[in-house]
Amino acid sequence: MRTLTNLLTWLTALLCCLSLAGCGATSQPAKFYLLNSIPSTESAETKVPSGLALGIGPITIPEYVDRPQIVTRISTNELSLAEFHKWAEPLKDNIPQVLADNMSVLLNTEHVATYPWKRHTPIDYQVTINITRLDTIAEKEAHLVARWHIFGEDTQTILDTQTSHFKTTLPSSDYAAIVSALNHTINDLSREIAKSLVRVHSNTTKTK
Fold first, then answer.
1. Is the dihedral of CA 199, 204, 205, 207 positive or negative?
2. What is the DSSP letter of 183?
3. If residue 80 lies in a helix (H) or strand (E), which one and from where to where?
4. What is the C-alpha to C-alpha distance for residues 77 and 79, in angstroms, rounded to an integer?
């Protein structure tokens, strides 16, 4: 009987300790991040009319990053999902808006629509983008790979098509730095597309 009593006392004490440990433990609060557009003070490309109408999209992103958690690449074939570091909104929504805002600044136009736009929205050029990579690797670099096309106002004629590769060195391994580096690659992509739009518009104007 004494042995049973001692066992029950020990089990009760153990349960109390576990309960207290559970009550005392606090989970790490999640942090949320957004990609941001380039500053409105950045110099615009001046060789296009200010009223140029652009359509941005459709834009596709890899399924492996289309999730709330920020994804980093540990090795060529291994990925890590951050439990406590997440996107404040889906990348499939955030990225098109950032690219549209960037085009507005870089090409000095307020007439930028994101896909899908209304049927009768005037569009001079449409830019479609297929992002095939957007991540960081080994806490060293952020990488973006995207294939994009520029279509004329008929949205059928391809005026330019390119595959862009960008990488940015990470200043540190924290997630704020990771997001900033990924943001940098998106902005670099915006600048490259803007420059191409200037060339395309110049060539199109000459042939009219």
1. positive
2. H
3. strand 79-87
4. 7
CA distance 129 to 57: 6
127: its two tokens: 């830019």
**Digit-coded pLDDT (tens) for 23-42:** 444 578 999 999 999 998 87
> What's the domain range around 77?
52-207
pLDDT in tens, 41-87: 877 666 677 778 999 999 999 999 999 999 999 888 899 999 999 99
Q: What is the mean pLDDT of the chain?
A: 87
Residue 27 lies in a domain: no
- Taking only the tens place, the pLDDT of each residue in 145-154 is 999 999 998 8
| CA-to-CA separations, 96 to 19, 22, 59, 187, in angstroms, rounded | 48, 43, 7, 12
pTM for the model stands at 0.83
Burial 166-197 (b: 16+ CB within 10 A, else e): bbbebeeeebebbbbbbbbbbbbbbeebbebb
Task: Give me the residues paired with residue 56 across strands.
Answer: 114, 127
Cβ neighbour number for residue 151 with a 10 Å cutoff: 19
On the question of pLDDT at 13 being above 60, the answer is no
Amino acid present at 111:
H
- Confirm whether 3 is domain-assigned: no
Count: domains in the chain: 1
Asked whether 134 and 119 are in contact (CB, 8 A), the reply is no
